[in-house]
C-alpha cells in the first residue's frame, strides 16, 4: 500500500515538471542519490557501527538477565555469555582487518560487510536466547507463586508443573 502511494506521488510530481529533459534529469539525480545512499549504507564503517549498536543492546539485555537469574538457568545464561564474547572477538577481528587492509578493494569491502552481517545475525540470536531464558525463569517464578498461594489458600491441587518452556530449559539451542 505504501509503495503504491509513493509511486503514485512520484509520478504525480514528475508530471508537474514541464520539460522532458528536466524530468529525466530529476529521475536520474534521484536514482543516483538512492544508489549513493545504498552504497553508503553498505560501507564497512557504517555496518560496523550497526554491529556495535546491536552488541551494546545485547550486552544490556544480558547484564539485566544476569542480575535476575540465580536458578538452574544460570548455566544456559553463562553459555550465551560465552557466545556474546565470541561475537565481540569476531567484531574485534573485523576491526583489525579494516585497519590492516590499507586501501581496501571492493572484494575486501564485500567480504567485510558479509562478515559483519554474520556477526549481527549471531548477536541477535544470542539476544533472543537470553530473552527466552529470562522469560522461562519468569514463568517458573510465577508457577512457584501460584503454587504457594494455592497452598496458603488450602487448595493444594497438586499442580506443581512448570510451564513447557520452563521444563525444557536445558534444551535451548541457538
Concise synopsis of the structure shown:
By secondary structure, the chain is mostly helical. It has helices at 2-15, 20-41, 44-68, 74-100, 106-153, 164-167. It has a domain at 42-135.
CA-based gyration radius? 26 Å
Helix content: over 70%
Spans of at least 5 consecutive residues whose pLDDT stays below 50 are 170-174
Question: Count of helical segments?
Answer: 6
Number of strands: 0
Tell the overall outline. flat
β content, as a range?
under 5%
Major sheet summary line: none
Task: Give the terminus-to-terminus CA distance.
Answer: 35 Å
- Give me the strand/helix succession: HHHHHH
Structural class label: mainly alpha
Mean pLDDT: 80
Keywords: Signal
Protein name: Fungal N-terminal domain-containing protein
Essential attributes:
disordered C terminus; 174 residues; mainly alpha; 6 helices
Describe, in plain words, how this protein is organized in 3D.
- Residues 1-23 form the signal peptide.
- This protein is mainly α and 174 residues long.
- The protein has a domain at 42-135.
- The chain has helices at 2-15, 20-41, 44-68, 74-100, 106-153, 164-167.
- Helix 3 runs antiparallel to helix 4 (74-100), helix 3 (44-68) runs parallel beside helix 5 and helix 4 (74-100) packs antiparallel against helix 5 (106-153).
Amino acid at each position: 500500500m505504501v509503495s503504491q502511494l509513493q509511486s503514485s506521488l512520484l509520478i504525480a510530481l514528475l508530471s508537474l515538471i514541464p520539460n522532458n529533459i528536466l524530468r529525466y534529469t530529476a529521475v536520474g539525480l534521484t536514482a543516483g542519490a538512492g544508489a549513493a545512499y545504498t552504497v553508503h549504507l553498505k560501507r564497512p564503517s557504517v555496518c560496523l557501527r550497526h554491529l556495535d549498536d546491536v552488541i551494546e543492546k545485547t550486552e544490556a539485555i544480558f547484564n539485566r538477565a544476569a542480575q535476575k537469574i540465580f536458578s538452574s538457568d544460570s548455566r544456559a545464561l553463562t553459555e550465551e555469555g560465552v557466545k556474546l564474547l565470541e561475537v565481540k572477538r569476531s567484531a574485534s577481528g573485523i576491526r583489525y582487518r579494516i585497519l590492516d587492509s590499507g586501501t581496501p578493494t571492493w572484494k575486501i569491502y564485500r567480504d567485510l560487510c558479509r562478515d559483519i552481517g554474520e556477526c549481527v545475525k549471531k548477536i541477535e540470536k544470542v539476544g533472543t536466547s537470553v530473552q527466552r531464558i529470562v522469560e522461562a525463569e519468569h514463568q517458573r517464578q510465577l508457577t512457584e507463586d501460584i503454587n504457594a498461594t494455592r497452598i496458603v489458600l488450602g487448595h493444594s491441587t497438586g499442580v506443581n508443573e512448570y510451564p513447557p518452556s520452563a521444563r525444557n530449559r536445558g534444551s535451548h539451542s541457538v
